[in-house]
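Following the same procedure, sequence and fold were stored together, as reproduced here:

>
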Amino acid sequence: MIITFACDKCGNTLAIDETNPPKDDDAVTCGGCGQHFGFYGLFKERLKDEAEAKARDWFNDLTKGLPRA
């Protein structure tokens, strides 16, 4: 799986190949403008937290109006 996102400073597309991920202490940096996003270990945790929040929101939207047990 390849994770892509846009740099919030220059708009350059960054990609992380999860089949060959960086080490947790590797820096995540934009190749376009050099902006530093932090280290991969922290970046990975933020991505996980964001994915969990989106899944929770999606589930809540999906189950709105359904009777609760």
In short: The first helix runs from residue 40 to 63. The two ends are 37 Å apart (CA to CA). The CA atoms of residues 5 and 14 lie 5 Å apart.
